[in-house]
Write a structure and sequence with these properties.
Layout: E1 24-26, E2 31-33, H1 34-47, H2 66-76, H3 81-102, E3 119-122, H4 129-140, E4 144-148, H5 164-172, H6 177-180, E5 184-188, H7 209-220, E6 223-226, E7 240-243, E8 248-253, H8 258-266, H9 273-280, H10 282-289, H11 297-303, H12 307-311, E9 315-318, H13 324-332, H14 338-347, E10 352-355, H15 357-370, H16 373-391, E11 400-403, H17 405-410
Parallel strand pairs: 3-8, 3-9, 4-5, 5-8, 10-11
Antiparallel strand pairs: 1-2, 6-7
Helix pairs in contact: 2-3, 2-4, 8-11, 9-10, 13-15, 15-16
C-alpha cells in the first residue's frame, strides 16, 4: 500500500507536482508519480528474459520449400547448383523438424524422432561458404552467428571455450534465448582443428582434437552453460542456459590437401594438374579444377577429424573453385553485386558509371591470379575504383564514367 503523499512534492523523474498527477509516491531519497510507475512497469516487461513466465510466445515457424530456398540462394550466390540443392533440402528438413515438435504430430509417427543433421561445407577460400550460411539465416529470419575455430581451445587452456560460440548467437538474438535456440551457427576454419598428427604424441592437442571433443555435445544437442560476458568459466559465476538441440550448426573449411587423400582413395595415380594436362590436355585440367571433390567421411578421418565429429556432420557439401566465368557473373548478377554498389555510390553524385564486358572479364582474370576467389575479386575492384572514387565526387561537370578493358590493363593492378 502506498504511503500518503505530502503537499508540495514533485516527481523526481518527470518533475510534475502532486496537482498534475493522480498519485505521487514519496520515498526516502526521491518521489515517483503513477505515470512514471506505469512507464517503469512496461520497461521491466520489455527487458524480461523471453523464456520467463508471461513473456510473449515465439512466432510460429514457416518453412519454405527447398525450391524456394534455392531460388533465394540463386539471387545472392552465383553457381554451386548442386550445393544449393543439398543445403536447401537439409535446411528445409531441419526446420520442418522444429515445426513438427511445435505442432500436433501425426499419430502414425508419434514415436518417430527426427534427428538433427548438421552440415559441413568443404571448398577453397573465397567460394562462398560463409555467404551460404548468412543468406540462409537471412531468408529464414533466424539469429545467425559466425565463429572462428582457430581461436578455440580445450577448456582450461589459453583461448576461447567452445561455449563462447553460443554467446555470439545469444547476442545476435538480442538476449532472446528461445529465439537463439532456433538459430544458425557457422563455424569457419573447422579444418584447422584437425589432429596435428596420426601418431600418438606425449603433448596434448588442445587446439585440435581437444576442440573436436569439446564440440561433440554442443553439435549433438545439450543444455550448455554460457558465461554472460564470455571468457572463462568461474565457480561463483552465473550462467546463461541454452539448449543446442535445435540449433543448426554449419561448419566450413578449405581442407587444403584433402584432394590428395580423395585421389588416393579413388586409386588415381595423377596428383596435381601437370599429369592431367599431359594425359587429357588443358581443358580437362580446367574441368577438374571446377569439379567439386567427392568427399567421403573416411577421407575426413584421414585428414584429421575424429570419427565422432564427422558423425555429427552427416550432410557433406563440397564446393568447387570459382571459374573466370563465375567471377564475371559475381560482379554483375547478385542483388548486392559490386558493380551495382559502385553505380549506386556514384549515382548519388549524379554520375552514371558503366563497365564494358571485357573490362569485367579482365578484372576476373586478375582475381584468378590471386587465387582467393570472390575475396580476390573484391580486392581487385576496390583497388581499381579507389582513384575514381577519390577524384569523381565534387566534379559538377562529370556526368558519365565508362570503364574499359584498356583502363583495367593500364592500372597498377595489371603490373
Amino acid at each position: 500500500m502506498a504511503r500518503k503523499s505530502t503537499p508540495g512534492l514533485t516527481c523526481s523523474f518527470c518533475g510534475r507536482s502532486e496537482a498534475e498527477t493522480q498519485l505521487l509516491i514519496p520515498g526516502p531519497d526521491g518521489n515517483i508519480c503513477g505515470d512514471c510507475v506505469e512507464v517503469c512497469t512496461q520497461l521491466l516487461a520489455d527487458q524480461r528474459p523471453k523464456g520467463a513466465k508471461g513473456a510473449p510466445k515465439l512466432a510460429k515457424l514457416t518453412v519454405p520449400a527447398p525450391k524456394a530456398i534455392k531460388s533465394f540462394l540463386d539471387e545472392h550466390i552465383i553457381g554451386h547448383d548442386q550445393t544449393k540443392k543439398l543445403l536447401s533440402v537439409a535446411v528445409h528438413n531441419h526446420y520442418k523438424r522444429l515445426m513438427q515438435e511445435e505442432s500436433k504430430p501425426d499419430p502414425r509417427f508419434a514415436d518417430v524422432e527426427i534427428e538433427k543433421s548438421n552440415i559441413l561445407i568443404i571448398g577453397p577460400t573465397g567460394c562462398g561458404k560463409t555467404l551460404f550460411a548468412r543468406t540462409l539465416a537471412k531468408m529464414l529470419d533466424v539469429p545467425f552467428a559466425i565463429a572462428d575455430a582457430t581461436t578455440l581451445t580445450e577448456a582450461g587452456y589459453v583461448g576461447e571455450d567452445v561455449e563462447n560460440i553460443l554467446l555470439y548467437l545469444i547476442q545476435a538474438a538480442d538476449g532472446d534465448i528461445p529465439r537463439a535456440e532456433r538459430g544458425i551457427v557457422y563455424i569457419d576454419e573447422i579444418d584447422k582443428v584437425a589432429r596435428k598428427t596420426e601418431n600418438v604424441s606425449i603433448t596434448r592437442d588442445v587446439s585440435g582434437e581437444g576442440v573436436q571433443q569439446a564440440l561433440l555435445k554442443i553439435l549433438e544437442g545439450t543444455v550448455a552453460r554460457v558465461p554472460p560476458q564470455g571468457g572463462r568459466k568461474h565457480p561463483q559465476q552465473e550462467y546463461l542456459k541454452i539448449n543446442t538441440r535445435n540449433i543448426l550448426f554449419i561448419c566450413g573449411g578449405a581442407f587444403v590437401g584433402l584432394d590428395s587423400i580423395v585421389k588416393q582413395r579413388e586409386g588415381r595415380r595423377s596428383i596435381g594438374y601437370k599429369e592431367v594436362i599431359k594425359e587429357h590436355g588443358p581443358s580437362s585440367a580446367a574441368a577438374m579444377a571446377a569439379k567439386p571433390l567427392e568427399v567421403q567421411p573416411e577421407d575426413l578421418i584421414r585428414f584429421g577429424l575424429i570419427p565422432e565429429f564427422t558423425g555429427r556432420l552427416p550432410v557433406l557439401a563440397s564446393m568447387a573453385e570459382m571459374t573466370e566465368d563465375d567471377l564475371v557473373r559475381v560482379l554483375t548478377e547478385p542483388k548486392n553485386c559490386l558493380v551495382h554498389q559502385y553505380q549506386k555510390l556514384l549515382a548519388m553524385e549524379g554520375i552514371d558509371l558503366t563497365f564494358e564486358k571485357e573490362a569485367l572479364r579482365e578484372m576476373a582474370r586478375l582475381a584468378m591470379k590471386r587465387k582467393a576467389g570472390a575475396r580476390g575479386l573484391r580486392a581487385v575492384m576496390e583497388s581499381f575504383m579507389m582513384e575514381i572514387m577519390y577524384e569523381a565526387p565534387g566534379q559538377k561537370n562529370l556526368k558519365t564514367i565508362n570503364i574499359t578493358a584498356e583502363k583495367v590493363r593500364a592500372s597498377s593492378l595489371a603490373v
